[in-house]
Amino acid sequence: MAISGFSFVLAEQKMLTIEVREVIGCEVNRKTTNYLTQTCADNFSVLCVPCPIGRVGGKSNVISFVSSHEQHMNMQKNYVFILFLLCSTASYSQHVDIDLLKDINLNRNENLDPTFEVVTNTVAPLSLAVPAGTIVYALIKKDEQHLQNAVGISSSMLVAGVVTTGLKFTVNRERPYDAYPFIDKVTSVTTPSFPSGHTTYAFALATSVSLAYQKWYIVVPSYIWAGAVGYSRMHLGLHYPSDVLAATGIGIGLAWLSQWLVAVI
Predict the structure, then answer these.
(1) Residues 6 or more apart in contact with residue 54 via CB below 8 angstroms
(2) Cβ(18)–Cβ(40) under 8 Å?
């Protein structure tokens, strides 16, 4: 289609290209470019953005116009692909999550159920007793470093409680034994599943204590206990592995953050 001596060519790359043939040696100037831009917009009902002028075969100046509609369509395709990828990944992860929980929960040694119930039930008393004990110890010693340690441990547990509760009711993930009836729950709870609160508290406490008192006979038992708490939540059928894994990272991260803030302040 020719308009006023200009021919419109639809390039294979899905770019709208307007070829301007040289006539009597005239060059494409700003006025011509503006005219072509407006012509393109008027005829194709899209916003056209001019690209740099190039020379083809030494005889033609070419102005390329990329349709914003094409760009919009390409962006939509990218969004759909990304959404599909995320959904596929989430679906695959969920399968891995429940398969791993099945292996742990359904193949467990049921004779160890009472032991792991005791382990999981130690979290609440220790989360209160250890911070309180460090505060009392610091006051008795009247030592600034011990007091800082006590504040760091206490703040770690407080922040862990706030963050975990907020995440639980924001994500609102169903407990595995509710979503999958074949999961054998030894006990039950009413709060949402993600993340594991017990595991968050356990690793926050283990990390904050280890940072405050950096002795191997404190660090090693602390993390063994925290790891046992995390495993107990899956053994008892109360949490997905991803709940426990996320809680581990959250607990450790919050403990480090709390200790750093206390040291800075």
Answers:
(1) 61, 62, 64
(2) yes
The residue assigned the tokens 């040289």 is 22
Q: What is the DSSP letter of 111?
A: G
In angstroms and rounded to an integer, the radius of gyration of the C-alpha atoms of the chain is: 32
The structure tokens 């200790």 sit at: 259
State how far the Cα of 69 lies from the Cα of 66, in Å rounded to an integer: 9
Site of tokens 């056209």: 48
Residue 105 tokens, joined:
């929960």
Contact criterion met (CB below 8 Å) for 226 and 203: yes
The CA distance from 98 to 174, in Å, is 13
DSSP states of 202-255 as a string?
A: HHHHHHHHHHHS--HHHHHHHHHHHHHHHHHHHHTT---HHHHHHHHHHHHHHH
Q: What is the pTM of this model?
A: 0.67
The mean pLDDT values, 10 residues at a time, for the chain of 265 residues are: 39 41 42 50 44 44 49 57 45 78 94 96 96 93 88 94 96 94 90 96 97 94 97 96 96 94 84
Kind of pairing between the strands at 16-21 and 54-56: unpaired
